[in-house]
Amino acid sequence: MSQTSTPARRRPTFSWLGVVPFLLFTIAFLILPIFFLVVGSFQDSQGNPTLQNYLDLTTEQPATAYKNSIQLSLITAVIGGIFGFLIAVAVILGRLPRAIRSAVMTFSGVASNFAGVPLALAFVFTVGQLGLVTKLLADVFGYHLWRDDFFGGSFSLYSMLGLVLVYLYFQFPLMVLIVAPAIDGLRKEWREAAENMGASSFQYWRHVALPILLPSLLGSMILLFGNAFGAQATAYQLTSGTINIVPLVISAQIRGDVLHNPNLGYALAMGMVLIMAVVILIYGLLQRRSERWLRA
Amino acid sequence: MSRFGAWWAWAIFIIAALYMLVPLVATFQFSLQQNPTGEAYRYIFNDVKFFAGLGYSFLVAVITIVISLLIIVPTAYWVRLKLPRLRPFIEFMTLLPFVVPPIILVFGLIRSYGRPPLAITSLPHGSDVVLIGAYVVLSFPYMYRAVDAGLASLDVRSLTEAAQSMGSGWPRILLRVIFPNLRVAILSGAFLTLAIVVGEFTIASYLAPWSFAPYLSQLGVFKAWSAAAVSIISFMLTWAAMGILILASRGSAGRVQIAGAR
Questions:
Q1: Which pLDDT tens digit goes with each residue over B173-190?
Q2: Is A273 in the same domain as A161?
Q3: How many CB pairs under 8 A join A and B?
Q4: Could you list the residue range(s) of the whole structural domain that residue A210 is in?
Q5: Which of A5, A130, B88, B109 has an alpha carbon within 20 to 30 A of B176's alpha carbon?
Q6: Contact A116 B213 (CB under 8 A)
Q7: Mutating which of A113, A195, A272, A288 best tests the B interface, going by the most B Cβ atoms within 10 A?
């Protein structure tokens, strides 16, 4: 940055120098590392250009990893999205005491940041074999969660179902946080207008509120999808890295080439980046659409 | 809304509260189960590795915050004042860390800086440098948003011209005029970074296995009671950071900050 007090306006050709430190940092610690992955993903083991790595993503292990990851993210995004939305509606429009509203918003801010290792541990202490809820179920109802029949199968926390349970813990509060401004933006006049025309509460939600909220609801769920899709720490801690989802395959790949092909690992990583890019893009588009009606 | 409305609202609220609170209660209860009561905590407070890990992560967080602020505040200020046409581009760049999950970022970092010709991680403190660099980049999205929102509430141009007319140079304008006026924005960005960096596991487990989250992860394997105790401590630290954040931003235009996946 210029050391003199002369406004840079007089030397416009140099004013872009002000953003150089920012760009250098982003290039060194984000762009360049990703660039190396991109290049590697288009090379074979001898360094020749190839598309084979991307074709190999359709082989069994990578394809299953993607399928599992997408499934996990989709399920937690939809359940977390719907329930998070209901919580936000309850807190904002349900006439609960004001203190509850601010407590829920504050707690959501904290809980959406309480992911990773301690969260996975907390669920082990809750519904693990020695967990509090597991023991309560056994002592009070004589039901042994891990041993007895569980919806026709057997329960394990270290499974896909377990991951869904744990991921929801940060998905609900995130949904509450991102959807609350949209619900706040619903104007009282719209409801009054609907009522004046004889609409029932159901009709108001079906024909007025939900259509207005839809882009923002979908956008929030898309963001939840990305949030679950990119998460690694929680799943790693809970399953010791044994479940076949993309982030865990990549962590194993970094430790020791489990795919027996470093370049396939790079392609696997790029696939994840691509999906995240699509997620952010759709989120941006929906966000723009929802701003048409809702200005907070 | 009818009185019935409040009834369903209570029901949803109570279910949600149970789901969110039971794991915390269970963790706390578990941490007290070791005999004698409090042993799990006694072990932690006598464990050198606990303080080393927490201290290291805290130091890394503070350095990350300082570097991130030194880069973002001048950049956001400069873009607002001189380069408004670059705004969409800078905003796009600060979105990139959302597109690249931490597991991919650390993969790329190890691929680029873990082997020749750029084998930084094998230099003394090399992996610390790469770790902090990664955290700085990860902090850009919310740091930039916080600071940019702060700048939006100031009249940057008038402040700058006033300072210039009294003979201030750029470093002085930034340090004496812009930084102090952005206190709230800076605090909120800083405490979010603190909460995230201290608890970050994915990148730390490769570049700094001795830091706080990897330490807790290992503790979970061989000392479950103490791991419960540390989880509770970690949750309280997150609460403290977020609490200060909320107190600091009270009254100003609050904006939801989303940190991304873990």
A1: 888 888 888 888 888 888
A2: yes
A3: 287
A4: 60-290
A5: B88
A6: yes
A7: A113
